[in-house]
Amino acid sequence: MADFSKNLIVRMFDVYKAYGKTSALKGVSLEIAAGDIVFITGPSGAGKSTLLKLLYKAELASQGQILVDGLNLSRIGARQLPELRRRIGVIFQDFKLIAGRSVFDNVALVLEAAGEKPKMIEKKVMSVLRTAGIEEKARVFPPSLSGGEQQRVAVSRAVVGSPRLILADEPTASLDPQSAEQVMQLLETFHGKGATLVIATHNRRMISRLKGREIRLEGGAVGVPEDFSGEKAEEC
């Protein structure tokens, strides 16, 4: 039974997702409270990325219900989708930056879409780039940046609109250790400002450092989390 004493930002009820005859998620139910850090772990192909895509409605569930920040995703249409997206920041493993637009413009897109005034856009974008340590790169184009710098731009874009929920898909997977550490620090900073983090990752160092709750997917279903030695934790 759900605990309604908690301020739940994500609720999933018996969610299935199939691509043709292939099942990506099988009966996933979970609750995530506002302010939580939750890690989605499991082997490649377990359904981690699919779960995140369902949460920001890049994909539709085949069965079951998903509520994000009070919005029932099976009931919202195209008109309400921008409202959902304003509440969520998404960080992609491959950055998904626009090569022909500057760092500033990549981050500003989120605020422009929300109808922010130019002066406020300037203030918010430069503030978040300063926090990310890449303020001096504001007028640079993404192809000239390192992978770590590009990911910090991607994090900046995800958080600039002050979303309640940040989804990150393997945010350190393609980074060297130093860059990965910088991204972890950024995520820690924005969680400290009130954001809920849901992170799909294989990075045990990140899980240990940020001390979040772990939800392990195995074959599309929720399994038993591993402990930090790599052994499965005992069920309580």
Automatic annotation (TrEMBL):
**What Pfam families does UniProt report for this protein, alphabetically?**
ABC_tran
For this UniProt record, the keywords arranged alphabetically read as follows: ATP-binding, Nucleotide-binding
Under InterPro entries, the record lists: AAA+_ATPase, ABC_transporter-like_ATP-bd, ABC_transporter-like_CS, ABC_transpr_LolD-like, P-loop_NTPase
The record's SMART domains line, in alphabetical order, gives: AAA
- ABC transporter domain location is 10-236
This protein's record includes keyword Cell membrane: no
Molecular-function GO term, any one? ATP binding
* Name of the protein: ATP-binding cassette domain-containing protein
